[in-house]
Amino acid sequence: MGALTNPIHLAFIAMIALIFLGPKRLPDLAKSLGTGMREFRDTLSGSHEDEVDPMIAAVEVPPAPAPIPDVAPAAAPAVPPVTPPHAPDAS
Questions:
Q1: Which of 35, 25, 30, 32 is nearest to 10 (CA)?
Q2: Residue 2, CA atoms < 13 Å, CB-side half-sphere
Q3: Do residues 48 and 38 make contact, with C-beta atoms less than 8 angstroms apart?
Q4: Cβ–Cβ < 8 Å for 21, 29
Q5: What CA–CA distance (Å, rounded) separates 12 from 31?
Q6: Helix ranges restricted to H, the chain
Q7: Which residues contact 48 (CB under 8 A, 6 or more apart)?
Q8: Cα–Cα dist 45/47, whole Å
Q9: pLDDT at residue 48 above 60?
């Protein structure tokens, strides 16, 4: 790992930040730094896809139209069989 993993180095950087920023702004800086690191990790891991952009969430989507019901064709009426006419007797 890097040289900043040594606790003495981290304490030295914290003291320098405390001197330059003061005790009032240091917690805000640490909070924003942590939030930025979390967002960066989430972006790299792909978990940012679960979040919804507020501008997209504000758009109203119209409801889908009702589905058209299936209509079965009407049953054909029962028709008696057609018998051919009788031919006259040729006698």
A1: 30
A2: 3
A3: no
A4: yes
A5: 19
A6: 7-45, 54-57
A7: 39, 42
A8: 6
A9: no
In contact, 43 and 35? CB cutoff 8 Å: no
Of all residues in the chain, the percent with pLDDT exceeding 70 is: 67
Beta-carbon contacts of 42 under 8 Å, excluding residues fewer than 6 positions away, are: 48
* pTM, rounded to two decimals: 0.36
Cα–Cα distance measured from residue 86 to residue 83, given in angstroms and rounded to the nearest whole number: 9
CA-angle at 73, arms to 67 and 78, nearest 5°? 160
Cα R_g (the chain), whole angstroms: 41
Residue 37 to residue 30: CA distance in whole angstroms: 11
